[in-house]
Structures are given as C-alpha cells and as structure tokens.
Amino acid sequence: MANIAFYALSVGGGVLGISQLPGLGGDYAGDLEDIRAWRPSIVITLTTGGELVDHGATTLGADLRARASRWEHLPIPDFGTPDQSFEEEWPGVAEKALSALRGGGRVLVHCKGGCGRSGMIALRLMIEAGESADDALGHLRAVRPCAVETDEQFEWARKGRRRKLPRPGGLHCS
Predict the structure, then answer these.
(1) 95-128: string of b/e by CB count within 10 Å (b at 16+)?
(2) C-alpha to C-alpha distance for 163 and 174, rounded to whole angstroms
(3) How many C-beta neighbours within 10 Å does residue 153 have?
(4) Each residue's pLDDT tens digit, 5-30
(5) pLDDT tens profile 34-43
(6) Is 109 left (phi over 0), alpha (psi -120 to 50) or beta?
(7) 3-state secondary structure of 126
(8) CA 116 to CA 157: how far, in whole Å?
(9) pTM here?
(10) Structural domain boundaries of the chain?
(11) What is the architecture of the domain spanning 7-158?
C-alpha cells in the first residue's frame, strides 16, 4: 500500500473523494496504482504545473489516462481561489463530475496536500449536487477536517448553484 489516502463521502449517488498529490509521500507509482484500484471515473488535479514539476508528477495526466481514468487539470495557486481561466473551464468539468456522481461513479479531487483547494472544489461539487453550503461543509469536514482553508475558498465554493443535469441514460435533445 502506498502513502496516499482517500477521504471520501457520498455525493449525488456516487462517491466524491479528496486526496493529496500522488507521489507526495514518496511512492508515485504506488499511489497511481492505489488510485487505479479506487476506480475514479474522473480525477481533477488542482496543483499548478510548477507543483507537478517540483514533486515529480509531470506525467500525471498521461499516467492517469493509462489507468482508464479521465483527467482534468484546473490549476489553482496554493491557498488561492480560481482565476478567470478556471472559471471558463469549470462548467464543463463540473458537468462531467456531477454526471459521474449521479451515475454512481467516483470522482477524485486533489491538490498538493488534499485540504484547501481540494476541499474548496469538493465543497462546490457538493453544493452543485444540491446540498446547502453549511451542511456540505460539515459533511466534508467530518471526513477531512482541514478541508477549505480560507474564507475566500469558502466564499468561492458557496457561489455554486444546484445543477440540473440529465439522469444517466436519459434522452438528450438538441
């Protein structure tokens, strides 16, 4: 067993987990295998490109895709909140993540330490899945007490609104 830990809770019919950066504990390959065994439908990476370089995870996206997981990279500076580029990408990524959760799948969100940025994005997904901000934060901190480290992160997450997505297998009209 590698050093990675998954802090998970039920959200929208699936499982939402947060973790630290694979390899942060010294066993990148082992952490990737633990992620593969956890079977996430999608992995959302919040670390910056510099953090990936600094911690030997420059091939993370390709490595996760090789293990049959979708990968989204939405970098946020440590202790920060999303910038305009993130905001432009978020609706599509959130739709994919919520669709996976509503279909009974697993979604893994990680930053470097698995606390602030991961907690902020997990909280936003919980809110967009229909939980109130305060209830969602309580549920999240019950499994990961350090989730959401700043008031600004909480305020960003709180701006989420419940998303109405088609149920898996439903008809899609254009």
Answers:
(1) ebbbbbbbeebbbbbbbbbbbbbbbbbbbbbbbb
(2) 18
(3) 24
(4) 999 999 999 999 999 999 999 999 99
(5) 999 999 999 9
(6) beta
(7) helix
(8) 11
(9) 0.91
(10) 7-158
(11) Alpha-Beta Complex (3.90)
